[in-house]
Structures are given as structure tokens and as C-alpha cells.
């Protein structure tokens, strides 16, 4: 199996399971210990940490591809190796989000919307403001919203990481 596909599968599974596990664990701790952190903040931080996992996977993909190519890799080859990881990671994390929202925690969207509504009420927002903001929040935390966000974010961020990292991984031309 090509290093990019292997790295993509491992990275996608790692990022997807981390996102689910980290959110569940830290949200449980937050609730148990009454820390008062918004669940959306916990979700956001766990999502950002998946970017680190993805960057590591992209690095291993590029390095593995470089090794297969006897230590010589162009910018284009390096970028392609990273981009493959980005796409595979996006697909797997989206699938993990689907599984989480439909099978593991089917009440996820309602829970997140209710928590956001409580926070808005506590901050003194008007009923109209709350109603207007809840429209977007309902979509954001819906199963479809979670899948689309995983696909777009992981692909976009992974592409950016690949564009930048490929500069450093490519074989430098010697004069």
C-alpha cells in the first residue's frame, strides 16, 4: 500500500476517534466537575487538536513517499502525498461524525442546541436574538452539519498544511 493511503487511513481513524473520545471525555469531566465550559468550546478545541493529528499524518505520508522514491521528492509529489491524507482523513472523520451523531450519541444535536440556548439566556440575549442564532446552531450541530464541517475543514486545513509542509519536505536542489 502506498505510504499516502496508509498514512491517510491511520490519520483519519486517529483523528476521528480522538475527536469523538476527547469531546465525550472532557464534556463528561466538565459536567461532573461543574467547570462551566461551554460544550461547543470543548468540541472546538478537540476539533482543533485533530489538525495536529492530521499534520503529523501528512508529515509521515510525505516522508514515507520520499523514502519510497529513494530520498528524492518534488514539491508536487510531496503536496500530492499530503493532499491524499487530507482527503482520506476528511472522509473518515466525517464517517466517524455520522456514527457518533446517529448511533453513539443520537441526542448530540439537541444537547448542543440546548446548551447554546442556556448560554444565550444567561448572557442576557433577547428572545429574538436567541431564536435567530439558534437557526444556525441547529444546523451546525446537526448530523449533516457535522459531516459537512468535517469534510470541508479537514480537506481545507489538510491542503494548507500540505502546501506549506511540501516546501520543507521536497528535495532541495544542489548546485
Short précis:
The chain is mostly helical.
**Global morphology:** elongated
Largest sheet: none
Structural class: mainly alpha
Tally of individual helices: 6
Give helix % range.
over 70%
Q: Can you count the beta strands?
A: 0
How many discrete domains? 1
Q: Which stretches of 5+ consecutive residues score pLDDT under 50?
A: none
Secondary-structure element sequence? HHHHHH
Task: List descriptors.
175 residues, mainly alpha, 6 helices, elongated
Describe it for me?
The chain has six helices and no strands. With 175 residues, it is mainly alpha-helical. The protein has one domain (3-106, 143-169).
Show the helix and strand layout.
Elements: H1 3-33, H2 39-68, H3 75-104, H4 108-122, H5 127-140, H6 143-169
Helix pairs in contact: 1-2, 1-3, 2-3, 2-6, 3-6, 4-5
